[in-house]
Amino acid sequence: MTEKNKPKKILVIRSATRILNQTLVSLREEFPGCHITVLVMQSAKESMEQDSRVDEVLTIPDQRRISVSSYGWDNLQKLKENKFDLAIALYNIDHGLGYSNIDILACAVKAKSVRGYNSTGTYKEVTSSTAKKKFFLEKTTYFWVVANYAATIILFLIAVSYTHLRAHETR
């Protein structure tokens, strides 16, 4: 990456708190002089403003999940106006499954590139198509877990009924 192409405006979406510090250190080392904006839940704003590695703090209302819908269309449009060079999604787990909502938000900002950082300190490039694919995998995983539980319950009920029926036949 040439000096001209290095990101100067970076958005970090603080979804995974335990890797935030190492990610900020890594970004400052890789992109000296960059401007880092962190998007956090409202309840974390004060502590994030104390971090010297952070230049600006934006907030999202305290809710269950950070997502495009919870951030709001008007706020998303304001984020786009910042014209970020790089958007960062943070994952507490290596593969990043369970964080498609963060990937989709990071892509919706329309930064020049998007990265997903994980707990090992490495990252993967994220695109709209990889975010959508991850979303689909997450949702179908939930379906199969529910289907597995339902099948287990049905098989258990069949086994109990069969055992009960066999007990009546031997009397």
What does this molecule look like?
The protein has 171 residues and is of the alpha/beta class. Helices cover 47% and strands 18% of the residues. The protein has a 6-stranded mixed β-sheet with strand order 3-2-1-4-5-6, with helices on both faces. The longest helix is centred in the last third of the chain and has 42 residues, at 128-169. The chain is elongated, with a radius of gyration of 22 Å.
Short description, anyone?
The chain is α/β, with parallel strands linked by helices and 171 residues long. It contains six helices and six strands, in the order βαβαβααβαββα.
Write the layout of secondary structure elements.
Elements: E1 9-13, H1 20-30, E2 35-41, H2 45-49, E3 56-60, H3 68-71, H4 73-81, E4 86-90, H5 100-108, E5 113-117, E6 123-126, H6 128-169
Parallel strand pairs: 1-2, 1-4, 2-3, 4-5
Antiparallel strand pairs: 5-6
Helix pairs in contact: 5-6
What is the number of strand segments? 6
Helix content: 40-55%
**Biggest pleated sheet:** 6 strands, mixed
- From the structure provided, what is the oligomeric state, counting identical versus distinct chains? single chain
Written as H for each helix and E for each strand, in order along the chain, the element string is EHEHEHHEHEEH
Q: Alpha-carbon distance between the termini?
A: 82 Å
Structural class: alpha/beta
Strand content: 15-25%
Work out the radius of gyration. Answer: 22 Å
Using the alpha-carbon principal axes, give the shape: elongated
Total number of helices? 6
Uncertain runs: none
Mean pLDDT: 81
The main sheet orders its strands as 3-2-1-4-5-6
